[in-house]
């Protein structure tokens, strides 16, 4: 199934929907635990297991989640990722990466039945690629590498001009587990390690933004790996 041809045209309704507005994109890095409400109100865009954080989950407008929804739904702590996502309000507009370059044998590939079931939870299936960041997401796949990148592409496409990044720490794996906000033993025992691969793709995202969306700003909240690398840093 060609996901781009079948489903990406649905993304047209989001083009410039939020021109001039502010949003917050929530990754799952440990600094999520330091986040407090900022004076600058905005729309919440969440990624993957940020839904474990109730105070953020309850305010989400948009939600991006990945292939583990079907491929490997059981989390490290024994909770069921699919059940958690299915329980989200249908008022939250969702985007699920179900394929990688429309490759039927990739680990991302969902069955036709899985894909059509996403409609029941108000989720649009999306395709990914590992090479290019495209302006027209109705005709091309999103960029891969981390779910926060498609969320950022989407925010730019929507017209947001102030995009706060929260929990986008560029953390790497520690003892085989990603250093994320709920893995407190790993945070306590090891420093946050910066992942240069993630940092490099953020730099490419900034270059893409500067060329195609020059009025938009990417601002880090409580930055770690991205300190001094995008359009601004704030500490709250």
Mean pLDDT: 89
Order of helices and strands: HEEHEHEHEEHEEEHHEE
Helical content band: 10-25%
Low-pLDDT residue spans = 185-191
Largest sheet: 9 strands, parallel
Strand content: 15-25%
Structural class: alpha/beta
How many structural domains?
Answer: 1
Features:
236 residues; alpha/beta; sialyltransferase cstii, chain A; nine-stranded parallel β-sheet; two-stranded antiparallel sheet
Description:
This protein is an alpha/beta fold and 236 residues long. It has one domain (3-234): sialyltransferase cstii, chain A (Alpha-Beta Complex), CATH 3.90.1480. The protein has seven helices and eleven strands. The chain has helices spanning 3-7, 54-57, 81-86, 112-117, 148-158, 184-189, 196-212; strands at 22-26, 43-47, 60-65, 93-100, 123-129, 142-143, 162-166, 173-174, 177-178, 217-221, 232-234. The strands form two sheets. Strands 6-5-4-3-2-1-7-10-11 form a nine-stranded parallel sheet. A two-stranded antiparallel ribbon has the order 8-9. The longest helix has 17 residues, at 196-212. The protein is globular. The N and C termini lie far apart (45 Å).
Topology readout:
Layout: H1 3-7, E1 22-26, E2 43-47, H2 54-57, E3 60-65, H3 81-86, E4 93-100, H4 112-117, E5 123-129, E6 142-143, H5 148-158, E7 162-166, E8 173-174, E9 177-178, H6 184-189, H7 196-212, E10 217-221, E11 232-234
Parallel strand pairs: 1-2, 1-7, 2-3, 3-4, 4-5, 5-6, 7-10, 10-11
Antiparallel strand pairs: 8-9
Helix pairs in contact: 5-7
